[in-house]
Each structure stands twice: as C-alpha cells, then as structure tokens.
Specification:
By secondary structure, this protein is mostly helical. It contains 2 helices and 2 strands. 56% of the residues lie in helices and 8% in strands. The model has no long low-confidence stretch (mean pLDDT 86).
Length: 104
C-alpha cells in the first residue's frame, strides 16, 4: 500500500497529493510533480528499447514463442562469446607481461 503525502507543485505553487510515483501530476495544473525524474525514466525506457532493437536478432511482436526463444538464445550466446574474447585477450596480455618481467 502506497502512502500519500502532499507536495508543493513546482509549476503552480499549490499543495497537491503525491504518491511518490514517477508520473504523479498536480491536481490543479495537471503538470508533472517531478518533471526531471519523469524525463529521466522515459529516457531510460527509450534507451532500453533502442538497445533491444539494435540486438543482432531483434525480437518482433509477430515472432512466435519458439522463434523468440531462439533469438534470445543467440543474442545471449553472442554476448557470452564477446566477453570470452575479452577475457582471452586479458589472459594473453597478462601472460606476456609476466613473461617479459621474468626475462628481465
């Protein structure tokens, strides 16, 4: 159960009810009570959506269950391979540094 408080509207200056949610609006002027927080949350959602669309195998609403699972698997597999490559290069670099220190 959410607790209801009062907050002063940054636009009209009237005291209005506030539940602490991102999209709470003033009862008098219908403006957002926390416009910066609201725009930040919307920006996060847009960035997450763009990131999903830029996946190698983008998920579409028309994809069936099997096709969606296969695409999710290949997207996850792609990131796994990416991180394994980074780990491999770090390992090789560490070996080269250690060997060069031992030779000196």
């Amino acid at each position: 159960m959410s607790q209801v408080c009062e907050i002063k509207c940054p636009h009209c200056g009237e005291w209005t009810l506030w539940k602490g949610e991102v999209d709470d609006r003033c009862l008098y002027c219908d403006a957002f009570l926390e416009p910066q927080r609201f725009s930040r949350e919307i920006e996060k959602k847009i960035v997450a959506q763009v990131k999903k669309e830029n996946d190698y195998f983008a998920l579409k609403p028309t994809d069936g269950r099997f096709k969606r699972e296969v695409k999710l698997f290949f997207n996850s597999f792609r990131w796994l391979v990416y991180y394994l490559e980074i780990a491999f290069f770090i390992f090789i670099t560490t070996l080269l540094v250690l060997l060069s220190l031992m030779a000196a």
